[in-house]
Structure formats: structure tokens, C-alpha cells
Amino acid sequence: MKRREFIKKAGVAGVATAAAASAFPSPAISQGRKQWIAVSAFGKAGLLGQALNEFAAFVKSVSGGKFTIKVYHAGELVKPFEALDAVQSGTAQMGYGAPYYWAGKSDSISFVAAMPYGLTAQEQNAWAYFGGGIEQADKLAYNPLGLKFLPMGNTGNQMGGWYNKPINTVADLKGLKFRMPGLGGEILKSFGVNVVLLPGSEVLPALTSGAIDGTEWIGPAADMGKGLYKVVKNYYYPGWHEPATILDGFFDLKQWEKLDSEQKDIITRGSAATNLFILSKFQAINNSALQKLINTHKISMNKYSDELINAIGARATEVIPKIASKSADAKALYNHIVKFRSTMVDWSNFSEANYLQARGAANFKAI
Amino acid sequence: MKRREFIKKAGVAGVATAAAASAFPSPAISQGRKQWIAVSAFGKAGLLGQALNEFAAFVKSVSGGKFTIKVYHAGELVKPFEALDAVQSGTAQMGYGAPYYWAGKSDSISFVAAMPYGLTAQEQNAWAYFGGGIEQADKLAYNPLGLKFLPMGNTGNQMGGWYNKPINTVADLKGLKFRMPGLGGEILKSFGVNVVLLPGSEVLPALTSGAIDGTEWIGPAADMGKGLYKVVKNYYYPGWHEPATILDGFFDLKQWEKLDSEQKDIITRGSAATNLFILSKFQAINNSALQKLINTHKISMNKYSDELINAIGARATEVIPKIASKSADAKALYNHIVKFRSTMVDWSNFSEANYLQARGAANFKAI
């Protein structure tokens, strides 16, 4: 609804309308109503669909109904992986997904999502908001696509994946048919893994038919929902390939620049809250799913051997820089993240890593 | 400024005013302007003062200037620890601090801030937003004081503190004069530590004069700013006493209930974003401070011995339940947090703890 229609529908006519229009010079009203369309790569039903709906409801609420975002979840307007195209073409003004979904459009954009052996969720947020991360992601990945980026969710540390047999040595990797997208998959390829890329809907069928020997997905809650435990029982940790994955809100850059400061504030803080809520929800639900997988579905929790962690880690430092060398933007973004990572490692080790080890010394009981 | 004054100042008179008033039935305008006062326990200069200013600026911006919060930092209107009194007495409508600052008012409220060997920052956020934490804190701590609570910042994992000599065994604790407020201090007392409570401004003088043998403060960035390294060099980790500390935004409950849904949305999401921003900023600045403490100021990084971590952890499970038994509210809140903690430990160990150990296998270099 445009401002003119709003005034008309409010039932005011003639001179009173003119007086009213001039009497309230508030920017929100004088600039009229803004109606955006958002397209998501995620389904309506899951927690990400719900979080996007709540974000849109927030925008509508705090703008007094003057800024609305009509949400189309995956498949409702365009296919999941067409969300970025839809924003570029002007069909939508906002999109939602994970940066590595758009790797076909940009050599650098996957680095925004996650890097094997890279930053944790807490470190990614430090990078994004106070380490120049949003600015660098815009400059080196999103702006060249005509887009503006904001972090809008995080999966936290993912699980290492599901295997149809125990995997202990580098030799065990050779010839394995494994689904792992992104940079992690590129590293596994270098060990002779037959890396398979499959959309989410085809993962369980491929595992069931034996077309793949294993797959990584997300974490306990999402993996349990997908039913992977029904076919294979060897569940590996930790998720070295995606220590945390940023989800991206992205906006038509020209439309973003047309927003006034109030509207930008709504989107910026609103998306930051969504970022925190999604990470918090994943954290809250993963443990109960894990307990159910272990106790009810009798899966086997396997820690990646030191041999594998060390060999894959060393290989990551060869493969990833090679991938980053594909373009100047990818190289610059890789360098920015690697530099930030080097400033995080010591503090996270002294604090979080040591604390998590120490905590086991106390076993509190309800009173 | 009240709505009537606003209309008057907008320069509209007589019948046109009446028409205008009825023509725009938007809740934001029809309910007029709201002006709140906020009082903080933190100084203006630090990152917490800045974050509160930015929160108030956000509220003003997205409300189109119709909801303003005038911020008074520590000492500007009332003394730091009088912030809660100021809200209870109606001098202010909002306060900002750390829950354990108000321990004199409530037996349960310290549990909202932190618990020795308790939740990490990511787990606290999961507890607050998706584990019923905000609801329980309101019911058992804030509502009985006539207040509404929202998390509005987190320090992340703190450091264990500064000592004038190495501390390796339980015997080393006996007779030590150490500053540690809250539940951690209560545990140390049980080992014969002479626990001293001092306001922040007196910590460095007391350390310098030898009135205390050591102190905990926050983390590398804040500790360096305080100059503690100038007097003592033994810096201990991890911060078992405050694995993470929630900062609290609190509101006059009657004023909160008078807010419309738009105003509540502004405060709720605005404070969640502040929560994330503060944790992210602490994470971003702690490592460079740590490097400077180690390399320039030549401090000694000491890990608490297994003997101490285990003995203190075991004692925590005796002392804290005893403190929680002081009132029904404290007991209920302790039980709620302990139950949530038991649902977090496994997942955080499999994911974050194992990942942080594995990460050292990759040493990325700029290209």
C-alpha cells in the first residue's frame, strides 16, 4: 500500500488531508510505506523458517506497519538455491540462506560461511561485528554481486558426519563415497575421497541405496530430524569442516541504500538478534537430540583419530590457500579471516577450551 | 514531550488538528511520546557505557523519536550500585548492571549472573532465550522486586585472577587475602581464604599496598586497563568462578506492562542485539590485550593445577546448594539452572571442547 492509498483509506478528504499531511513531518510517514519481498533457501517448517518469519514480524511491528517484508520460504516463490538470483533480478529485495550456497556466483563468498579449522561461532560474531568482517564480506563478496550482507544466524559447531563403517586412518578415506559440500569436501578429495554433492532431499535415499558411504549434515537435532541414524550408526566429531557456519541475510544494494537510517537500524539490529536467537536455539536443542540418538537410537559416538585430525588439518593449510588464490577477492577475504583467526586462537584456548575441560570437576545435583 | 505538545509544536490549529489526530490512528502516534530514564552501574567511558548509549539511540531511531531513553551512566544520577534502587523508587524506568550487584536485595538474583563451574556464554543465551531462563529469572528474582529482566550483555569466560605468588595446592589457599565477589568467593572462604570485597576503584591500591594478595577482575582487556599487571605477575586461567557473566537490563515492571507490543519488540530485540554485540566485542579485544600482557608486560600465564580445579569443583557442589537453600526462590532458580546445565554438558564437550583441541592441527598463513 502506498502512502496516498493509506491516507485515502484512512477516510480523510480535501483540505483536512492536506493539513494532516503537512502536520506530521515524521520521516516514517512522509516517506510512506515500504513493502519488500524476501526469498529464503530454507523451508518454512524448521527453526530457520520460523526465525525469518519472526524477523519480518519485528520489522512490521517496530515500523508501525510502514515497513513490511513478505516472506517466501524455499520453493514458495523460487527454488531454494535461486534466492540470490531472485534478489539480483529485482523479484525480491531480500534473500536468506548460507553464503556457500552462492559459490557459483563468487569465488570468495564461501569463506564468509565457514572455513575448515577456522573460527567458532563466538569468534565469527567477533569477526563480523568488531573485526571488520561485515565490511570485508561486503567489499569482497556481496557488493560485487550488487548485494549488501548481514549475518543472520549461525549453526554453531557442526558434527563431523555419519559413516557406514569406522574410519580411523588416512588409508580408510581412499575410495570412500562421501557427501560433503564446500571447502571441507575439497580437502577430502585430496585424500582420494569420492566427494558427492547432493541436495538435502536426496541424502537419505542415497545413503539407503549405498550410492554414498556416508554424509555430513549439520548437528544432532537437524541430523536426527533427517533420519540418518536409521541407515548408518557411526557418528563422528568434532566438525572440523564447519566449526560454525554463518547464515546470510542479503539485500539488493540499491534498495538498501534507499533505506533511511531508521529502516537500516531496524534491519541491522533485528538481524543481529535473529543471529543470536538461531545460534541459541541450535545450542538448546542439540543436546537432547544427541541423548536420544545415543540412548534410543543406539548410535556410536566416534572421535576422529589424532591421525585424521592432524593429516586433514595439515592438508587444509595447502588446499584452502590454493582455492583462495582463484581470485583477488577470495585471496583478500581468506587473508582477512586467517589474520583474525590468529588473533583469536590463544584467547579461546586459555578461556573456553580450558574451562570446558575444568568444568567436569563439578557435578551439581538438584536439591 | 506529550502528544498534545507535539501537535501544538507541529503548528497545526483548530479543526485541522482534530482531523489530523483522527486521520492517523497509528498506535505510535496516538499514544504519544514516551520518555524514560535509564541508570547504569557502569561508567560512560568503557564498552558497556558505549553499548548502552547505542541501545538508547536505537530505541529513539526506530520509534521515530517517539520513545526516548535518557541514559545516566555510573555516578551521573545515582551511585553505581544504587541503580536498582533508582528503578524501584521510580526515579528511573530502566537500569543496567550485573545481576550479582543486587544480591543484597535478593537471595536468588546472583544465580542469574553466573555460577562457578556453570554455563558458558553460548549456553547462557540458550538458557535465557530457549530454556525458559528469562521467564524463571523474572518469576524467581526480578518480578518479586517489581522488575522485568532481559539479558543485555555477557563478559564471556573470565580469567581466574592475579596472584602475588604461584598457587598450586589447596594448602596454598589458606590465609590468602583475595578479592573475589559472589559465589566463587564463598567457595574460596571454605578453603580458609580471607575473601575481601572491594569496589573496583580500590582494587589496584589494595593490591599495591599489600592489603590483598590477589584479585580476580574480568578478562585480559579489562584487567590490562585496570593496570593489575603492574603489581602482580601470576595470571591464572581458566575462570572457573565466572565461566560467563550475564549483564542485566531491568525495567520497572509496571512501566514495562504499560508498553505497547511495538515498544516491547523494540526493547526485546534491541537488548538481544546489545547482548550479542557486547560478547562479540569482549571476544574481539581480549586476545590482543592478552598478547600485550604476555609479550610487553611479561606476565606469567599459569593454569590452575588439576588439584585445585578438582578440589574447588567438588567443594562448589557443596557450598552452592547450601547458599541456594536460603530461600525457595533461590532453590528453584538453582535447580532450573542445574537441570539446564546437565542438558548442555555433553553437547558442548563433543562439539566446542573437541573442536578447540583439534583446531591446533591447522596453522594457516596469509598468501
Give an account of the 3D structure.
Two copies of one chain form a homodimer. Chain A has helices at residues 3-9, 14-23, 27-30, 47-62, 83-88, 110-113, 121-130, 133-142, 170-173, 182-189, 203-209, 220-226, 253-258, 261-295, 306-324, 328-342, 345-359, and strands at 34-40, 67-72, 94-97, 147-154, 161-163, 177-179, 194-196, 214-215, 234-237, 246-252, 300-303. Chain A is globular and about 60 Å long. Chain A has 367 residues and is an alpha/beta fold. In chain A, the strands form two sheets. A six-stranded mixed beta sheet of chain A has the order 7-6-8-5-9-11, with helices on one face. In chain A, strands 2-1-3-10-4 form a five-stranded mixed beta sheet. Chain A has 17 helices and eleven strands. The first copy, chain A, starts with a helix and ends in an 8-residue tail after the last helix. The first copy, chain A, folds into two domains: 31-154 and 245-283, D-Maltodextrin-Binding Protein, domain 2 (3-Layer(aba) Sandwich); 161-243 and 296-353, D-Maltodextrin-Binding Protein, domain 2, CATH 3.40.190. In chain A, helix 8 packs antiparallel against helix 16 and helix 10 (182-189) packs across helix 15 (306-324).
Secondary-structure map with pairings?
Two copies of one chain form a homodimer.
Chain A: H1 3-9, H2 14-23, H3 27-30, E1 34-40, H4 47-62, E2 67-72, H5 83-88, E3 94-97, H6 110-113, H7 121-130, H8 133-142, E4 147-154, E5 161-163, H9 170-173, E6 177-179, H10 182-189, E7 194-196, H11 203-209, E8 214-215, H12 220-226, E9 234-237, E10 246-252, H13 253-258, H14 261-295, E11 300-303, H15 306-324, H16 328-342, H17 345-359
Parallel strand pairs in A: 1-2, 1-3, 6-7, 6-8, 9-11
Antiparallel strand pairs in A: 3-10, 4-10, 5-8, 5-9
